[in-house]
Amino acid sequence: VQVIADAAGRLVWASAALPASTHDLTAARTHAIIDALTSTDVMTFTDKGYQGAPGSVRTPFKRRRFRPKLSRRQKAVNRAHAKIRARGERAIATLKTWKILTKLRCCPHRATAIVQAILVLHRVEANRHAG
Questions:
Q1: Domain range for 61
Q2: Counting Cβ atoms within 10 Å, is residue 67 exposed (0-12), middle (13-18) or buried (19+)?
Q3: Closest CA to 17 of 120, 127, 110
Q4: Phi and psi (nearest 5°) for 59?
Q5: Rounded distance, CA 121 to CA 111, Å?
Q6: How far apart are the first and last CA of the chain?
């Protein structure tokens, strides 16, 4: 499941589930997430699994096999990137607090329905506490 969070770390959108073996970048392309974010020029901070994504998608620097260490500048950029991404990770952690997802073993179609229901319940709960 691909998740999009706002700048405050709140869940905004969750994709349909794909088989667990699907790579992150492939899943994002399948759901046309990258094209949508790039066409609207939304700056997006992702993990290293999205390395090579075009447009406004930002990934941290990745150490290569023949490059033993990242430069000081690259490490500083990665630290700043991680601070921003922590907000998105908070949204994923919110999703994972739902006990039903801890041992979910079913087809992607059923998992999609469960995740979408959780997203709706999460929004209802958030709106109830917002006042």
A1: 3-130
A2: exposed
A3: 110
A4: -120, 155
A5: 15
A6: 30
Q: What is the pLDDT of residues 83-116, one digit of tens each?
A: 999 988 888 888 888 888 888 888 888 989 999 9
Both tokens of 79, joined, read: 């630290």
Residue 31 has a pLDDT of 93
* Mean pLDDT along residues 37-57: 89
Chain-centre distance for alpha carbon 91 = 8
Give the pairing type, strands 57-58 and 44-45.
parallel
Whether 6 shows a pLDDT value over 90: the answer reads no
| Number of folded domains that form the chain | 1
pLDDT at 68: 76
Q: What are the φ and ψ backbone dihedral angles of 121, each rounded to 5 degrees?
A: -60, -40
Looking at the chain, how many residues does it have?
131
Q: Which residues pair with 57 in a beta bridge?
A: 44
Q: What is the pLDDT of residue 131?
A: 61
